[in-house]
Amino acid sequence: MSSSDRTEFGEYLKRRRAAMSPPDTRGGVRASRRRVPGLRRQEVSDIAGISVEYYTRLEQGRAPRPSREILAALARAFGLSDAERDHLFRLGGEQPPEPASPASVIRPGLLRLLRGLDDTMPVTVHDGRLDLLARNRPAEELLGHLTGDGPFERNIAYQAFTTDVLPRLLGEEGADRFLRVAASELRVALSRYPGDAYLRALLAELTENSRSFRDHWEHGEVGASKSALKEMRHPTRGWARFEIEVLHDPERDHWIMLYTPRDDA
């Protein structure tokens, strides 16, 4: 950290300390008459489990770059939100911690967006583990047969390698491209959530039961598709072309896929 970075980091700590409510005596921290708002440095250091001398140097911009463990302890002590914690980490010269798993609940506003586009385009939402979370009515019509049974019934990669619907939906070339993308995105998911039991079980299941998956997995491709032009077969309207754009909600690790119909189909 440069001297200016240490100063900005210290100022952020001061503002967070000043915004905290003083604890009462039932919390085990001595309450006393105060001349300034918020907590004393001693109280913050006690909660964070670090020395008051070190915490004082952090606030004054005189301490070296704090470790990730110290940053995590400070974030817990201040009761920071995820966004506030991430900001603290960046100020401290570290990348914010990765989430342990994607959020399981979709934002209500995003669900309203899906319904609002019912007359415009298909829209789907999947999480960072490639599980399909939601889709609007046009997407249900277009992709309704892509879900199955079992613990991985809503996983895109699992359905890609264990069902025979892709050639009918995308054609032979399109199906092969989709399998390559599915394997590469599963590798990305595993790298982001290396300890995730669900993803590990999914990998074991596909490795054991799908020769196609083993072949694609051995290629070692890594990637996350953000846009594409796809030709897809609608069950009642025949072949149609879609411009697909993918938007990301990084806080929840949700991915929104917009299927914009192309007039030149």
UniProtKB/TrEMBL annotation:
<protein>
    <submittedName>
        <fullName>Helix-turn-helix domain-containing protein</fullName>
    </submittedName>
</protein>
<dbReference type="GO" id="GO:0003677">
    <property type="term" value="F:DNA binding"/>
</dbReference>
<dbReference type="InterPro" id="IPR041413">
    <property type="entry name" value="MLTR_LBD"/>
</dbReference>
<dbReference type="InterPro" id="IPR010982">
    <property type="entry name" value="Lambda_DNA-bd_dom_sf"/>
</dbReference>
<dbReference type="InterPro" id="IPR001387">
    <property type="entry name" value="Cro/C1-type_HTH"/>
</dbReference>
<dbReference type="Pfam" id="PF13560">
    <property type="entry name" value="HTH_31"/>
</dbReference>
<feature type="region of interest" description="Disordered">
    <location>
        <begin position="1"/>
        <end position="37"/>
    </location>
</feature>
<feature type="domain" description="HTH cro/C1-type">
    <location>
        <begin position="38"/>
        <end position="85"/>
    </location>
</feature>
<dbReference type="Pfam" id="PF17765">
    <property type="entry name" value="MLTR_LBD"/>
</dbReference>
<feature type="compositionally biased region" description="Basic and acidic residues">
    <location>
        <begin position="1"/>
        <end position="13"/>
    </location>
</feature>
